[in-house]
From TrEMBL:
A GO molecular-function annotation: oxidoreductase activity, acting on the CH-OH group of donors, NAD or NADP as acceptor
Name of the protein in question: 3-beta hydroxysteroid dehydrogenase/isomerase family protein
All residue ranges annotated as the NAD-dependent epimerase/dehydratase domain in the record: 8-263
Keywords: Isomerase, Oxidoreductase
Coiled coil residues, start to end: none
Superkingdom of the organism of origin: Eukaryota
InterPro entries for the chain: Epimerase_deHydtase, NAD(P)-bd_dom_sf, NAD(P)_dehydrat-like
Native organism: Melanomma pulvis-pyrius CBS 109.77
Family named by the database record: Belongs to the NAD(P)-dependent epimerase/dehydratase family. Dihydroflavonol-4-reductase subfamily.
Gene3D superfamilies in the record: NAD(P)-binding Rossmann-like Domain (3.40.50.720)
Record lineage: Eukaryota, Fungi, Dikarya, Ascomycota, Pezizomycotina
Length: 340
């Protein structure tokens, strides 16, 4: 796909990762159509990018439950980056709120893209959640790669006794499987899926206040602001800016069509490490940061983000930089909230 002639639809564009994908495309001179259910958030996204006004348009889409919600949105685009999917652990009905919408969203975007002959590639944001096997434990030491799939069954993921965390893993696995099944029928485009672990970093999407932070950054802020020191379920992470680059490279590199990538930093993290970085990096850090038992980073297994780095030309950001960039921004938001 030639960047200067590309026109890319980004779904979930007003979300944490989606907005970074939008910015990465705009900075390369690529024309973007940003899809959102909320025109108000869409307009906020656009207002914050006035210098790109001729390169960016907003389209309102319906909920995933409406199979035709992307019909208008795909008109004339050459590529699609499908980031949108429900990501929340505050659910009352996991199947209805997480699993069915995630699958329906993938199906709706792919069916719409198939009807629009201009589409050459669809990049889909999956997750490490669709790769990991919660029962697999070292020793022997092992490395997860993009060849691995979460063994969770559909029945397990919709079980009423299942937590939202497990159900979310099911939502990502079954949505991604839906995409690969669709690709088998050889539509007029190819697909690439990306499986990032926890994604952190500064935000550039419309966030009204700290309470409105996305799930992953909200946890970082809990540590920095002294509310809680949770234990991370997995030690893998990626910077949101690196992940945005991965999405765009996955779209424009012809040779990566049909591939699945794990996009992950080689460094490992714990929330204890977040606490140490904040304590050392900010004058108020030691005093305020959440305290708790010393956390040891689980170094008994690995995740191979190097293949993605090589094939997509990525250079992973150091964890301390990611944490500090985000915390600086969150502190500014807190000050603004106090002043308002
Ligand atoms: N953050 C992470 O740590 C992480 C890690 C791995 C993978 N991911 C994946 O990355 C993607 C984006 O996550 P994020 O952290 O950026 O989350 P986010 O800020 O919550 O953004 C998700 C976007 O998806 C759209 N969406 C959610 N439910 C929808 C529905 N039922 N119908 C239509 N649109 C819906 C929303 O768009 P509107 O409200 O604007 O319509 C929202 O902006 C998701 O696919 C997530 O699974 C995230």
């Amino acid at each position: 796909m030639t960047p200067s002639q590309s026109y890319v639809l980004v779904t979930g564009a007003t979300g944490f990762i989606g907005a970074h994908v939008v910015d990465n495309l705009l900075q390369r001179g690529i024309k973007v159509r940003a899809a959102t259910r909320s025109l108000q958030k869409g307009e906020q996204l656009r207002a914050a990018r006035q210098r790109y006004s001729s390169q960016l348009d907003i389209v309102q889409v319906g909920d995933f439950s409406d199979a035709t919600s992307f019909s208008e949105a795909v008109k004339d685009v050459t590529g699609v980056i499908h980031v949108a999917s429900p990501f929340s652990y505050s659910t009352t009905d996991n199947e209805k709120e997480l699993i069915l919408p995630a699958i329906a969203g993938v199906r709706a975007i792919l069916e719409a893209a198939e009807r629009e002959k201009s589409v050459e590639r669809v990049v889909i944001t999956s997750s490490f959640a669709s790769v990991m096997n919660a029962d697999r434990k070292a020793p022997p030491r092992f490395t997860y790669t993009a060849e691995d799939w979460n063994p969770l069954t559909y029945e397990e993921s919709i079980d009423k006794k299942t937590s939202a965390v497990i159900a979310y893993r099911g939502s990502k696995k079954f949505a991604e499987l839906e995409a690969w099944k669709f690709a088998e029928r050889k539509p007029g485009f190819d697909i690439v899926t990306l499986c990032p672990p926890m994604t952190f970093g500064p935000t550039c999407h419309p966030v009204a206040n700290l309470a409105g932070l996305n799930e992953s950054n909200a946890t970082l802020w809990k540590v920095a602001s002294g509310k809680e020191l949770p234990v991370s379920r997995v030690p893998f992470w990626v910077d949101v800016r690196d992940l945005a680059t991965a999405h765009v490279e996955a779209l424009i590199r012809p040779e990566v069509g049909g591939k699945r990538f794990v996009v992950a930093s080689p460094e490992k993290f714990s929330y204890g490490l977040v606490g140490e970085i904040v304590a050392e990096g900010f004058s108020w850090g030691k005093e305020r940061v959440a305290k708790g038992e010393k956390q040891v980073i689980d170094d008994s297994y690995d995740l191979d983000g190097e293949k993605a780095a090589k094939e997509l030309g990525l250079k992973y950001t150091p964890f301390s930089e990611t944490v500090k960039d985000f915390v600086k921004q969150a502190v500014r938001m807190e000050e603004q909230e106090k002043e308002a």
